[in-house]
Design goal:
Helix 1 packs across helix 3. The radius of gyration is 20 Å and the shape is globular. It is of the alpha/beta class and 262 residues long. Strands 1-4-3-2 form a 4-stranded antiparallel beta sheet, with no helix packed on it. The protein has a 4-stranded parallel beta sheet with strand order 7-6-5-8, with helices on both faces. The protein is built from 5 helices and 8 strands; from the N terminus they run E-E-E-E-H-E-H-H-E-H-E-H-E.
C-alpha cells in the first residue's frame, strides 16, 4: 500500500451532523411500467429490435445496441423519441425471477482476449456506467481503450452522509470486486490501476490490503477524507501527480474513474 498523499489546501470535513445512512440496502419493487430510451452515447440513437405486443424477458436486448429490459413483460409502445415502453408481467419481482444471460458468458474470463472482454462489457450495457463510461472499441466513449493510462477506482467517503463501506463493498465481495478490476487490466493493458480509499475507512483499507498482498499490479492509495477529495480535479492529481488543466475531464488526460459498484 502506498503512503497517503499530502492533503490538498482547503476542503471541508463534515462533522457534528446528526444522522447517518442505514447500513442496509433496500430492495425496490419492480415498476409496473418501464421506459427504455434508445440512446447509447457519443454516436447517437439505436433502433428498436422489438415491436408492440412482443413479450420480453428480463435481460433481453430490445434494441440494436445494449439496451436490456429489466423486467419480464410486454412491449406496449415504441415512441418517436425513440424509446421502448414495457408493461411488467403480473407477479414479476426483482431477485425472484431468472434473468437472461449473455450468450457465451462464463466465470472463466481469463480464456478471453481483450477484444472479447470488451464485447461482453459493451453488450451487457456496462460500458455506459459512471461519468465517462468504460471505453471499448464500440465507440461508446470519446477515447479508445489504448489511450487510457490510469484506471482509478474511487472509494472516497468525503460527502455529508457517505454510505458505509461495509455496505457498498463488504469483505465477502472484495475478491469479486478485484476480479472485475483484473478483467479491466486486460482491456487497458497499458494503464496503471489504483484503488483510492479515504483514510476514514480503515476496515476497508485493511481488507483490501490483505487481498492485494500477492498482487503487484493493483495499487492501494489512502487519500484525504476532506470534501471534495472525490472530485476528479482533486483525485487525479493525488493519484497521478499530474496537474489537472482547467476545463478538462479526466478522460481527456487518459484517466477513467470508476465506482466500486461499476
Amino acid at each position: 500500500m502506498k503512503k497517503a498523499k499530502k492533503t490538498f489546501k482547503g476542503g471541508y470535513r463534515f462533522s457534528r451532523f446528526k444522522g447517518a445512512p442505514s447500513e442496509t440496502i433496500e430492495s425496490l419493487e419492480a415498476p409496473d411500467t418501464v421506459i427504455l430510451p434508445l440512446y447509447r452515447g457519443p454516436d447517437g440513437s439505436i433502433e428498436a429490435s422489438v415491436k408492440v405486443g412482443d413479450e420480453v424477458r428480463a435481460g433481453q436486448s430490445v434494441g440494436t445496441g445494449p439496451v436490456h429490459s429489466p423486467v419480464d413483460g410486454t412491449v406496449s409502445s415504441i415512441t418517436r423519441a425513440p424509446a421502448v415502453i414495457i408493461e411488467k408481467k403480473p407477479g414479476y419481482a426483482f431477485g425472484k425471477n431468472d434473468v437472461l444471460k449473455l450468450g457465451g458468458a462464463t466465470a472463466d474470463w481469463r480464456k478471453f482476449n481483450a477484444a472479447s472482454i470488451e464485447g461482453y462489457i459493451y453488450n451487457a450495457g456496462a460500458a455506459s456506467l459512471d461519468a465517462a463510461g468504460i471505453p471499448t472499441r464500440y465507440a461508446n466513449s470519446s477515447v479508445n481503450p489504448d489511450e487510457i493510462e490510469h484506471l482509478i477506482v474511487r472509494i472516497v467517503a468525503d460527502e455529508l452522509l457517505p454510505a458505509a463501506d461495509t455496505v457498498l463493498l463488504p469483505e465477502s465481495g472484495i475478491e469479486s470486486f478485484l476480479e472485475g478490476l483484473r478483467m479491466l487490466e486486460k482491456v487497458f493493458s497499458h494503464a496503471t490501476v489504483t484503488i483510492a480509499v479515504s483514510i476514514n475507512q480503515p476496515e476497508l483499507l485493511d481488507g483490501l490490503q490483505g487481498h492485494l498482498l500477492s498482487d503487484d499490479k493493483i495499487s492501494l492509495l489512502p487519500v484525504s477524507d476532506k470534501y471534495p477529495q472525490g472530485f476528479q480535479e482533486i483525485l487525479v492529481p493525488a493519484v497521478t501527480g499530474r496537474e489537472f488543466p482547467y476545463g478538462y475531464d479526466a478522460v481527456n488526460m487518459g484517466v477513467i474513474i470508476l465506482s466500486p459498484q461499476t
